[in-house]
Amino acid sequence: MLNEREIESCYLGQFIPVHYHHNMLMDQNRMHGFKSAIDYAVKPGMKVLELGGGTGVLSWFAAAKADKVWCVEFNPDMVKEARKMLAINPNGHKVEVVHADAFEYLPPEPVDVVICEMIHVGMLREKQVEVIESFKRRYLQRFGGPLPVFLPEAVIMAVQPMQQEYDFEGFYAPIVQFQETTAIHPGVQELAPPAVYSIIDFNQPTDSCFSFNGKFVIERSGTLNSLRFVTKNILAVVAERSTTIDWLNHYMSLPLASPLKVNAGDVLQVSFQYRAGGSIPSLEASIQASVVYDAALQAPQSVPAYA
Fold it and tell me: Domains, the chain, ranges and CATH?
């Protein structure tokens, strides 16, 4: 019988099919960014823990330098997959794949680096924030300080008002879309620059609730019918070079139920709130957008639109 968290995990994505993890292996930006960050963060002789190991590839990157890696995975299908993959790769013997719940597992000894790539746009669906905060509390209780280095080290999240095309061969469908950050998307227009609504530093206590109530000055006239959510993961801070190793998630475009006509110079107010690990519909239901200054009328307006 599944408990409440296990039921939610199945719904929110922890038990995604194996082939989705295979697709992640084929994501070159993800793979290159994590390999570079792990190579920088993990020094020879270190002990490493990965929470939510999937195919085991990130643990394998760490095993190139680490003495020992614990790779924790809750999905039994992925446990088998990780063990199979690691067995046919050099240094795979240094990785112990542990079938356990990341919310509860602690390594048998202190570790130097913790990898936790439970990353979804906006920190939605997957439980990265909650898992890391739980780990910090339990680790300090058992081993004391200092805490290990976390990878990613930080996350920057932003939102942007957009005009999004929802025509699919004549079929109108305002759906949630995930878009590659490097591709050109015809029919998509940026109406204003993005605004940062949260910066997470995993070395500090992290609030599990995110909210935004801000204004945008519209730079291009059009129809506001979507909000783009941007998530930039700071995988590692390279202090000696004053730079970072980053990975940018796919953009997430959420449709607004009631589109708004906007003109250049208008002031748009947008607000929303949600909890880390929550569902996409929970975020959609909280979105409010309204024109609070109409540039054409040069007078305050209040025309709400709810997503």
Answer: 4-117 (3.40.50.150), 154-306 (2.70.160.11)
